[in-house]
Amino acid sequence: MSLRTVRGDIGEAGHIQPHEHVLSHIGGTNRRQGTALLSGEPIDLENYYEVRRHHSAFDMRVDDIEDAVWELERYRTAGGSVIVDATSIGLGRNPLGLVEVSERTGVHIIMGSGWYHRDYHPDELGTRSRADLAGQIIREVTVGAEETEIRAGLIGEIGLNWPVDPVEDTVLRAAVDAHLDTGAALMIHPGRDTRAPADAMARVRQETTSTRIVMSHIDRTLFTVDDMLALADTGCYLEFDLFGQESSYYPYADIDMPNDATRLGHIRALCERGYRDQILLSQDICFRSHLQRYGGEGYAHLLRNVVPMMLRRGFDKDDVAALTVDNPRTMLEIAP
User: How many CB atoms lie within 10 A of CB 291?
Assistant: First the structure.
């Protein structure tokens, strides 16, 4: 079994962050997202807090090759081995750019496939069949994406709103078909409602009993250990992927966000109840204000700050290895 990166399959891997955005454009939609600022002004010391809190047109573009190289060099120096770019179609995915960044930094990058939620769908997506959509994802995993030979190593992030749009449902089921055909893991972006993860898994369970399904954004969607345990019982991975985002304010919905200490408390509770092997950790960096070059935490925040915190809070080295190396590697493995 191997990991499928943009430069080919690899067998060995160290620290893996399974949900980031190396090159993306989350502002690429005609519908205003949350409390986004219309400003395209660069980030500076005077506007950093407001930009970080609400995000701006400039902030929502993480698409500069030089920025990406600078950031991933620091990720590699901190101990990072592999990073997953979960940028799906419509979010500014850049296969050739990912290859360049990987070659220049030595960091292995795994590219996503499929489509994000309805606000980012191309107009013709609703006219295509489930089989046609599945066929495109399968080609991207096995042959190459966007008329290249650069293959995706993950199906996702597949975006859902709440309630789920009919086209999103078709995309999700096509993604399940492609998952079963290729063996690539399926990553889901659930809608912003506590009912959304269970609803998404119910749809998946109508198609397959596979356990290589990742439910993203647990830390902005579920807020009690009981709800997390109920989701874990469906067999999916629970991905806490907003580490470093420590403001309680959430610009996209009326949600009180946790901080990193709260995240680790939830994860510790899940581990103590026997679910350690179903937990993934990441940061979901998709804004310039989250990059170290612009005053943010950078991709190495987990390595520099969270892992030491874990060791101070009752996790041992085996726990850290399971959560940051073993679990994401098992989730991402594909038969050659």
Answer: 22
Q: What is the pLDDT of residue 57?
A: 94
Q: How far apart are CA 246 and CA 29, in angstroms?
A: 26
**For the whole prediction, is pTM greater than 0.85?**
yes
Question: Structural domains in the chain?
Answer: 14-332 (3.20.20.140)
Laid out side by side, the sheet with 154-159 consists of 15-20, 80-85, 108-113, 154-159, 186-189, 213-215, 237-240, 279-281
What is the four-CA torsion angle of 206, 212, 218, 224, rounded to 10 degrees? 70
Strands 24-25 and 61-62: antiparallel
Beta strands in the chain (DSSP E): 3-5, 8-10, 15-20, 24-25, 61-62, 80-85, 108-113, 154-159, 186-189, 213-215, 237-240, 279-281
Quick check: 83 and 17 in contact, CB under 8 A? yes
- For residues 185 and 152, the answer to whether their CB atoms sit within 8 Å is no
Could you tell me which residues are annotated as the binding site? Answer: 19, 21, 157, 189, 217, 284
| Feature table: binding site for a divalent metal cation | 19, 21, 157, 189, 217, 284
- Residues with Cβ within 8 Å of 229's Cβ and at least 6 positions away in sequence, in order, are 270, 273, 275
Sequence-ordered list of residues with C-beta below 8 angstroms from that of 224, at least 6 positions apart, any chain: none
Nearest to 102 by CA among 179, 4, 200: 4
Tell me the one-letter amino acid at 22: V
For residue range 180-236, list pLDDT tens digits in order.
999 999 999 999 999 999 999 999 999 999 999 999 999 999 999 999 999 999 999
